[in-house]
Amino acid sequence: MTSLIPDFIMERWLSFWDVLTPLTQFLVGKTFLIVFVTVCVILTVAFTTYFERKVIGFMQGRVGPNRVGPLGLGQPFADVIKLLIKEIVVPQKSNRFLFLVAPLLSIVPALATWAVIPLTDTLVIADINAGLLYVLALTSVGVYGVILAGWATNSKYAFLGAMRSAAQIVAYEIAMGFALVGVLMAGGSLNLGEITRAQAGGVSHWFILPLLPLFLVYFISGVAETNRAPFDVAEGESEIVAGFHVEYSGVAFAIFFLAEYANMVLISALTSIFFLGGWASPFEGWSFLGESNLLRDPGFFWLAAKISFFIFVFFWLRATFPRYRYDQIMRLGWKVFIPVTIVWIVVEAVMAWLQVGPWSGLAG
Amino acid sequence: MAEIQSYTMNFGPQHPAAHGVLRLILEMEGEVIQRADPHVGLLHRATEKLAESKPYSQSIGYMDRLDYVSMMCNEHSYVLAIEKLLGIVPPLRAQYIRVMFDEITRVLNHLMWLGAHGLDIGAMTMFLYCFREREDLMDCYEAVSGTRMHATYYRPGGVFRDLPDSMPKYQPSKWRSQKRVDALNAIREGSLLDFIDAFTAKFPGCVDQYETLLTDNRIWKQRTVNIAVVSPERALQLGFTGPMLRGSGVEWDLRRKQPYEVYERMDFDIPVGVNGDCYDRYLVRVEEMRQSNRIIKQCVDWLRANPGPVMIDDHKVVAPARIEMKDDMESLIHHFKLFTEGYCVPAGEAYAAVEHPKGEFGIYLISDGANKPYRVKIRAAGFAHLSAISEMVVGHMLADVVAVIGTQDIVFGEVDR
């Protein structure tokens, strides 16, 4: 960083910085960090939509966006501009206040959760001890946006979408919670940074190995939580048209859209952190790769690579699978995932106590 | 305690899964359907009445627009009815061409159905895969008739013209390089028959690809197995025909039971279902695509070996060739008479039915001896199927309504006429 900024500016900046009180320093620093991370997330979301359309286009034998800018890279911005200049139509019989608050209620938790995500070993906005609980709490709040939107719209399609979404979240939140209990036992901490550090030391230390069923349950529940195909019954394009956001237009719709994709990136990030060692490199300890380089060293690059992979899996699922029916999703959640997680927590505890195989290094 | 009322929902006519303009009034308890009331008529275009006001041959184009995903099969039924009344039989080559295009149309229709059915249930990729192959078949339509959908290719007495020796080709553009265009045109270099031959060679592989995505897919099975079960007896009572009837296990196919054109010379199997649910109807239609492919291949082989006329040589019904018309007084008179008042058809009535991709498509024609039909009645398979929708969806969930509409393969051009 220092090499990018000329020395004299840096010196002035530092002298100015030193004058401030520690509290102001903290506030300014954190605000800067929050703005930085938020902008990065929003930009990531923008290009995730582009990435999705290109990836799914490729899978479906199409080309995807290729008109705006080189390779169609300007498409996300064209979409944003289009949505910004559209009118927000508020249905006459809706509850105007709740109707407009709902999109905010879904975007805020999606962005706020990033506060505890460790992007690298040192870079994290709030290094709090109850990070895992914070994540669980905020991802649950996100559903209120969907339910309120469906309720406030006062449309039967939207109402059905909201009901479906509520039932789905309740079922999958439990499975997700239980999967995270397994992670908590393995990592021995609620702090996301600590959980990641517990996985240091190469692929064999990653939690995906001892916790494979929990990993699968967590990721699939994540797909269900974000209302993505094949669990997109809350939107259910061909059944209830667009579900909870059927009457939303313009920026209000854009915010729902943003929240959905931000949640997708978030779930990818959390899965990487909980099960794939976050910023850790898979080649850790491979001496023939040289002393110190990008491939071997842990760093943000690896977290980004893992997130990209999971986002790709999201798209892959969408291009491959038909949609589940709403009662079948419930059955999968209650009768398959929850028993699997409970059984595996017991297995994990026993194995870790006996110190067998891949479980031997676990804290629990 | 408040009285509990069922939830009424208006499904359509502007709905992504309404397959056009279906308006369903659903009465539900929660998401479970208590009653479904289909409202039809939003696409009514008075085809039957229009046909009564025009010379016979001028209504062929209206038939294309009935079931607008299986155009030539509609024409076929109408043309057969006229031929029955006139007492003419088209040349053998024309009959083979008709059978070949009937089967191409069947594949076109089933591809459209498979794509839409998949899309309704959420398998978006199917739609695009099916349209990829449909594009090739549309090119066959374009090659013989000049249009990709509403062909008006079958005429009383044969078909409009013989199969062309060249195929329409792609042109390079800003978005499509010469190299890509060359790759696309590779199978379009020869005649139409070469192209269809190449298509029949690759198509079974494409069907395998669709089946890989759906047939053993757990989600697909959960969404279709045991949904909308119709017993064979009930299917007959409801007037089901085509794949809807065969899906219930009744082996009834007009191509076999009442052969028309050259179907009795063709070697093909009739798939039937066992349980009569959406999954069986899916399997029946997919197998029908494979069987159609076999028939197309047999027609291509015969057509290659047997050149000949494709129209009867009777200028009272069939317009003379343009070159004759410019050259010969009598031909000019024939031409003028045919294109102004058409031809008179002997008084009488005829019913001609074909095995349309959706079921039995029949035209009942009454002639009073004039140059226009006295009455045209269209028997569309989709109407009978749609009538049964309430019975099929009761007790299922909202998401299954979409699957049932898909499995019925409804097109409103045909239902509303």
Structure characterization notes:
- The complex is a heterodimer of chains A (364) and B (417).
- Chain A is mainly α and 364 residues long.
- Helix content of chain A is 64%, strand content 0%.
- Chain A contains twelve helices and no strands.
- In chain A, α2 packs parallel to α11, α3 crosses α10 and α8 packs antiparallel against α10.
- Chain A is globular.
- Chain A starts with 6 loop residues before the first helix and ends in a 10-residue tail after the last helix.
- The mean pLDDT of chain B is 89.
- Chain B is globular, with a radius of gyration of 23 Å.
- In chain B, β6 and β7 form a beta hairpin.
- Chain B has 417 residues and is mainly alpha-helical.
- In chain B, α4 packs antiparallel against α17.
- A three-stranded antiparallel sheet of chain B has the order 1-2-3.
- Classes of the chains: A mainly alpha (364), B mainly alpha (417).
- Chains A and B meet through α6, α9, α11 and α12 of A and β1, α4, α5, α8 and α17 of B.
Q: Please give the share of residues in helix of chain A.
A: 55-70%
- Please mark out the parts of chain B with pLDDT under 50 across 5 or more consecutive residues, or reply none: none
Topology of chain A as a string of helices (H) and strands (E): HHHHHHHHHHHH
- The total count of helices of chain B amounts to 18
Helix and strand element order of chain B? EEEHHHHHEEHHHHHHHHHEEEHHHH
Helix content of chain B: 40-55%
The mean pLDDT of chain A is 83
* Structural class by secondary-structure content of chain B: mainly alpha
Oligomer: heterodimer
**Total count of strands of chain A:** 0
Largest sheet of chain A: none
Strand order of the largest sheet of chain B: 1-2-3
* Net shape of chain B: globular
Q: What is the rounded distance between the termini of chain A? A: 40 Å
N-C termini distance of chain B: 48 Å
Specify the overall morphology of chain A: globular
Largest interface: A-B, 31 and 32 residues
Tally of separate helices of chain A: 12
Uncertain residue segments of chain A:
none
Query: How large a portion of the residues of chain A is in β-strands, by DSSP E?
Result: under 5%
